[in-house]
Amino acid sequence: MHNPARLTPSTRTLIAVLASALPVAGHAATAAHISFTAGDVRALSADGRSRPLVKGAEVASGETIDTGNGRAQMHFSDGAQVSLAPQTQFRIDEYSFAGKSDGGEKGFFSLVKGAMRTITGAIGKTTRQNYRISTTVATIGIRGTEFSVTHGNSINVTTGEGSNEVCNAAGCLVLNSGETAYVADANTRPVMTDKKTEIPPPPASPKLNEIIAGNDTDGEGNPARLGSQSDPGMPIIPLASGSGGLGVAYVTAAGSAGGGLLGGTLTFAPTGELTQFADSTYPLMGYSGGAVADFGADGIIGWGRWIGGAQTDIYGTPTSLAGMSYVASLTSAAVVAPSIIRGYASFASTAPVVVSGGSIVATGAPNSVTGTLNVNFASNPGTGGSLTYSLNIPVAGQTFSVIGSANQYSNTGFLGTSSTISSSGSACLTACSGSIPSGDAIQGMLAGSGAERAGANYGFNSAVGNVSGAIVFK
């Protein structure tokens, strides 16, 4: 008669110890979700296994994200967001967050090589030592909310908002908003530098972005890809829906162009794009129904572009749109002290669009428009300030240059007064002219508690069609 095997106490103890030492497949806690990828982005586990990453994929502690020639953006469970440039390896060394800051949360990362930009979340806000990013030459601690890093043999760290601390064996350096540190090696003290971190821009993608022959096919006759095509260049922090300001530049399906600065109810999707606007004075007036082509938001200002949709007048009568770009803010800009002159630099833009005959005939790349904005705030705070601006807009095989001036007519709004528009091609051989309601090329708004952001819509007529888009500054 067969006797069943029995486990002695010592055998049971040994099995329990061995079991506790082995990882349980599928039970690694998720640290982040991938919100954007372009190219062959992969996750590398500690044991050398590799798997591709696509939008929606999960990553966990111990994994390294390798962007190769692509790009990636991820959203952590504490609200932090990280954007990775090409040729970057970013490792999640240890991450834990149970939904609240109770001292047990941890966010320890390593930038092995490459370039990254981040807006931090709840981890480190109350216990700073619970957050750090390590490199081979220095460690970056949190004292703020936004910073970027480039890492080769040396590192550059630029703080966008708040402050950060950069430390190595030779000492520490605290960076405040707008400041940059350079660290030559692990044994050389961090020093201040004027050279900001330079994160490579997203590569142009003609197949997706050069839409010709109407608004539904690309240059090779393939269906145009809607939805968010862009890597916004920095993590998206959506704006909550509510009352705020909206600036638009649009072209109707009949071919007429216009724009405006409006106030009312803004409705945003959880992913960050504007889905509807209703005017506060005329509730039947607004914008709705467009297919989102590209968009972004940083928690202070939002920007985006629609294909199609409708504009309704004060009586609720709809007019079909060929396309529309927008900038949006839920906070009025604070009054800035008189006689202050402040310079702004662009950090994102929608894809510039050319419309002719009521149809989109060319579309550039998201984040390809660059520019500067200088504001001389008035002695009567909030009104009468003057602005100068310069934009470079690559689209339709050439680059348009728009240089001009504008007036600040409220705490928030400004409107172009004069502009000079030229192009590297033949589109302005006959004069290009502004199509914003004032007859100029630009309108915009200041945003944020200290007017730390600005956004503008541009629109002008050229030989290739009406050119329009949105650009944001900080």
Describe this protein with a few key phrases.
36 strands; mainly beta; disordered N terminus; 8-stranded antiparallel β-barrel; 2 helices; 17-stranded mixed β-sheet; single chain; Jelly Rolls; 2 domains; 474 residues
Largest sheet properties: 17 strands, mixed
Counting structural domains, the number is 2
Shape: globular
Sheet/helix structural class: mainly beta
As a percent range, the share of strand residues is: over 45%
Estimated helix fraction: under 10%
Mean of residue pLDDT values:
81
Low-confidence stretches: 1-27, 202-233
Number of separate strands: 36
Helices, by number, come to: 2
Over all CA atoms, what is the radius of gyration?
25 Å
- How far the N terminus sits from the C terminus, by CA atoms, comes to 84 Å
Give the arrangement of secondary structure elements.
Elements (H helix, E strand, L loop, with lengths): L8 H13 L8 E9 L3 E3 L5 E3 L5 E3 L3 E3 L4 E6 L4 E4 L4 E8 L9 E14 L11 E4 L4 E4 L3 E6 L3 E7 L1 E6 L2 E6 L3 E4 L7 E3 L12 H4 L32 E11 L4 E12 L5 E6 L6 E3 L2 E7 L4 E6 L2 E3 L5 E12 L11 E9 L3 E4 L2 E5 L6 E7 L9 E10 L2 E11 L4 E11 L9 E2 L7 E6 L5 E10 L2 E9 L1
